[in-house]
Amino acid sequence: MAINVTGFRVKKPKPKISASRRLYLKTKILKKASTLLEEEKKEKVIERERILSERLPPLQLSGLSLQDLQTLCKELHRKIDGVDDDRYNVASKVAKNEKEVADLSHKIFELKGKMKRPNLKRVRVSAEAMLGALLGSRHKESIDFKANLKTVKKEEEKREDTDWRKNVDAMSVHYMRHSSTFGIEPGFVARASSISRIWRPDSHRLSVLFGCRTLVPQIFLMSKHKLFLLRHGEGAWNKENRFCSWVDQKLSENGVLEAKECGRMLKQHGYEFGRVFTSILSRSVQTAWLVLESMGQEWVPITKSWRLNERHYGALIGLNRAEMALNHGEEQVKLWRRGYDVTPPPIDESHPYYAQIYNDRRYTTCDVPKDELPKTESLKEVLDRLLPYWNDVIVPEIKSGQTVLISAHGNSCRALLKHLEGISDTDIVNVTLPTGVPVLLELDENLRPVKPRELLGDQAKIQAAIKKVEDQGKVDEGKK
Ligand SMILES: O=C(O)[C@@H](COP(=O)(O)O)OP(=O)(O)O
């Protein structure tokens, strides 16, 4: 029995072909389809090779002058740009089509009867009377609704025709306008094609965000959570240019001012925290207190964990960076400080700060036994010890709707940024965070950033502060 459109039960007509014949035909069709698919696959491979050989003829470098090589490089860059643009255009079309397919499937689902339509009676009412019933006395004013509809349609069509790159350019203007207060990585405000370069580590994600003309205007809608990362205010040893790491140092006078100022700025913008996380080092806790105090949000719960501690700098702890640069070279110091997988020599019992660190009661409260705590760490190892805490403790808070502030350290924040933004091992070398500057990350429901991080505050000052941190690893000119 089946049900026809009128709702009556009707007898199913007997099929004209036997079951075995049907099976035979089905198998034949499937076989044919699989052969066709195979052929299509082979054609695609041949087509791919043809296009590649057309677009990428083997490089002839021998005998070329410097000038020729430079021209060749420029030409290759131009081609890469072209391919990039094409890729984003295709990605945007795919995303748009996928969305349309999803919408249509939804409509089909609805039409299939999941949504029951009410029984409607046919009535004869004039348009005038209908408007009167709907709008009351206002219908007189809106009588020109046809003309209005036309205008709306025209506008909609116009919006559809807009090139997605223009939307991104428009967004850049939005960012530019705000860049005095909301810091953006230098160079972000640029043409769409160069955005992908800055976000190269996760360009696929970005192609979906920025590459789709229908999605571009929705970028701000997709932001579901706000997360703030903060490197504590200047510590006493930051000022002396010594590797501080797991040595517990308080904020310098300037660090206290930085933390208070940070709180004032966040308050001015109306941010409200639901949870704060810090390391177990005083400079990060003290910073969190001062920020919350300046915001009048002292009551917000603070949770501390060693897993947010600064990277363990091993035997380098206590040493002066500029002196290290003089003795070991600036390159080596940069590798120690910023390399992703570079581990400094471990600290041992003969180190002047060993006892102070490992006899400290705070390290008996950790979720690992004291003798399993690190003796040195690369940034990669920081991320390894931080991730379980992030996933198990911080993520649930964010997902439950809390706006979270993580008041931590230069390298624990860099590790987290690397994870969240998908920064590559090589690109993370170029990320430096100044003290006391909040970094705002806007995340989607899966905690993926929906736009570039924003360093909040005066951009000129922030750039100067970043340079100052980078220069800490250079030889002091006076001592050369
Ligand atoms: O350990 C330290 O001295 C600095 C980081 O030093 P660099 O990685 O910048 O050398 O950590 P923080 O001041 O953020 O706690």
UniProtKB/TrEMBL annotation:
Q: Name one GO molecular function term.
A: phosphoglycerate mutase activity
Per the record, what are the reactions this protein catalyses? (2R)-2-phosphoglycerate = (2R)-3-phosphoglycerate; (2R)-3-phospho-glyceroyl phosphate = (2R)-2,3-bisphosphoglycerate + H(+)
Site Transition state stabilizer: give positions.
409
Enumerate the active-site residues. 232 (tele-phosphohistidine intermediate), 310 (proton donor/acceptor)
Locate the coiled-coil region(s) and give their ranges.
Answer: 30-86
User: Which keywords does the record carry?
Assistant: Coiled coil, Glycolysis, Isomerase, Muscle protein
Q: Which PANTHER family match?
A: PHOSPHOGLYCERATE MUTASE
Q: Which HAMAP family does this UniProt record tie to the protein?
A: PGAM_GpmA
What does the protein in this record do?
Plays a major role in regulating hemoglobin oxygen affinity by controlling the levels of its allosteric effector 2,3-bisphosphoglycerate (2,3-BPG). Also exhibits mutase (EC 5.4.2.11) activity.
Instruction: Provide the protein name.
Output: Phosphoglycerate mutase
